[in-house]
Amino acid sequence: MYDRRGINRWVTTGDGLSLAVRESGDPDRPTVVCVHGYPDNSSIWEDVAGHLSERFHVVRYDVRGAGESAKPRGLRAYQLDRLAADLGAVIDAVSPRYPVHLLAHDWGSIQSWHAVTGGLSARIASYTSISGPCLDHAAHWMRSRLRPHPRALRELLSQLVRSGYIGFFHLAPLPELLWRTGFGRRMLDRLEHLGLAGDEKPVRPHRRLPDLLHGLKLYRANMRGRFTAPQHRSTSVPVQVLAPTGDVFVSVPLQTGISCWVDELRVRTVAGGHWIPRGRPGVVADYTARHIDRVGDGQRHLGDSPRQES
């Protein structure tokens, strides 16, 4: 079961919501903030945090609509600007003086990309992204594959097949019925077994119905606008992409074909399925720590560096 007793603090967002935050490790060490995706909550980072907290101050929080955090009803409350502002509020609370290192998965990565390519860039020392591209980058990537070249068309077709569920998620109330009947959760359990590495063991999480239902708003609030009119979003934050080779939702090319948007990019293909933070936590922690070591520990007072704007 999801353990609410592990909550260390509550952070209030700009629109008055409460976010549940969990911390481990020495708070005087560099801070790593972990952002989970859909339909998970911050418990997906438990084993990764166990590895990283030996060297870092590790922060996990339930994003709005998930876990013990507040669950607003309206779609506008789930727009990327709101999600990035939530991340900023968490960073201000757990590391007010120093930049943090960001580690994110799935929709956690999508919203973190929005922050890294926007006004929060000066608050982030490094970013490790797993299975969640920037929506604007993804839209530009898909358009770039609309050319008469066999490889480009194959990559586009492969990703369109993987993304087929997104259209279904917009067909309310059908996805809600799928989750409420339990059939959707059984399908998800089966998908979790696909693409696993040889040493990767699937661990069935306790997925809560409210997380499944409220998280649908992430898709409905953000997808159409970003894909019909994508923005040009770039970043100077050092980025590492961990791309699972067996991911059934996000292809490796979609995650990694972003060098034109990122000044300093490192790509690591990793054997495993979509949920490698749970299936291979030691690997995720090791790559994250290496990336942090390369860019520096982030222990620089914010007053020593100019603030970047979006």
Automatic annotation (TrEMBL):
GO MF annotation: an example: catalytic activity
One Pfam assignment: Abhydrolase_1
InterPro entries: AB_hydrolase_1 (IPR000073), AB_hydrolase_fold (IPR029058)
Domain AB hydrolase-1 as annotated: residue spans: 30-138
Name this polypeptide is given: Pimeloyl-ACP methyl ester carboxylesterase
